[in-house]
Design a protein that fits this description.
One of its GO terms (molecular function) is disulfide oxidoreductase activity. There is one protein chain. By secondary structure, this protein is of the alpha+beta class. The protein has two domains: 12-87, no CATH class; 95-262, 3-Layer(aba) Sandwich (Glutaredoxin). The chain has helices spanning 12-21, 24-37, 49-62, 65-92, 94-99, 124-139, 155-168, 173-181, 189-198, 203-209, 213-229, 250-262; strands spanning 105-107, 113-119, 143-149, 236-239, 242-245. A five-stranded mixed beta sheet has the order 1-3-2-4-5. A hairpin with a 2-residue loop joins strand 4 (236-239) and strand 5 (242-245). Helix 1 packs across helix 3 and helix 2 (24-37) runs antiparallel to helix 4 (65-92).
């Protein structure tokens, strides 16, 4: 990902205020250039701080492109630092992300790249990205998908997540997951149980298994993990050493998967 670029001239009236708001590195660049511009002047007594700052300000107002350069430098540095922080957090959380024995797995369980998805069955954007995830799974036989139930949109969302995880005990997690994710509109308890019945699940057993403490514990782990990764909404994805918040198109996912494959 590249740092953003500000295009066009910077209005002189706000140039100094913009520069004051950016990193010390950017200001250092401006001061260095201003000092260089005045290096040919005969040596004089040390000017007062206010006078020196005014000289810097005047130089920048005469050369506003320095502000653009400084902001670009600052943004690039911030992006690198952000990427390093994300890599560190993902590395520290790798066991929970990739190897939680309670987390359902789709795609190729032995795949070389894992996509971890945090989702809510009543999330509109999760449903929009569901066909993309299915297409990726079908076309990439080395893709592994870890499903992190993250019900944040109310009691029915939690009911749906509990039903899906309880269905896993009957070997039908993915079937119920797909049925609910591909449904139109908001789910209801009756609709969820209807999908389960259509899939041949034992409903009485399902209802009992939905109350398991292990499911509550899994929700707690997923919430803590999402918080540590800075994921506050759905959907959220972790692919390799990168985090993506929100829905994205198939090409974006393909690029992220390719990068993860190149940098295992």
């Amino acid at each position: 990902m590249q740092a953003g670029v500000i295009q066009g001239p910077v209005p002189q009236g706000i140039a100094w205020r913009i520069l004051q708001g950016i990193a010390v590195a950017g200001l250092g660049l401006a001061i260095a250039m201003a000092t260089q511009a005045n290096a040919a002047e005969p040596e004089q007594s040390q000017p007062a701080t206010a006078e020196f700052e005014q000289r810097v300000k005047d130089y920048i107002l005469s050369n506003p492109e320095i502000v653009v350069q400084a902001i670009q430098l600052y943004q690039a540095q911030q992006q690198v630092q952000k990427e390093e922080r994300v890599k560190a957090i993902i590395g520290q959380s790798s066991a929970q992300l990739l190897a939680d024995p309670e987390a359902p797995v789709g795609g190729n369980p032995e795949g070389d790249v894992t996509v971890v998805e945090f989702f809510d069955y009543n999330c509109t954007y999760c449903k929009k990205v569901a066909p993309v995830m299915s297409a990726l799974e079908q076309q990439d036989t080395e893709l592994r998908i870890v499903y992190k139930e993250f019900p944040i949109l109310g009691p029915v969302s939690e009911y749906a997540a509990r039903a899906a995880l309880a269905a896993d005990a009957q070997g039908k997690y993915l079937e119920l997951h797909n049925a609910m994710m591909n449904s139109s509109g908001r789910l209801s308890e009756a609709l969820i149980l209807g999908y389960a019945a259509d899939l041949g699940l034992d409903i009485d057993r399902l209802k009992t298994d939905m109350q398991a403490e292990a499911i509550s514990a899994q929700f707690a782990r997923n919430r803590a993990l999402a918080r540590s990764l800075g994921i506050t909404g759905t959907p959220g994805f972790v692919i390799g050493a990168e985090i993506i918040g929100g829905a994205a198109d198939q090409a974006t996912f393909e690029n992220l998967i390719a990068r993860a494959r190149q940098n295992p």
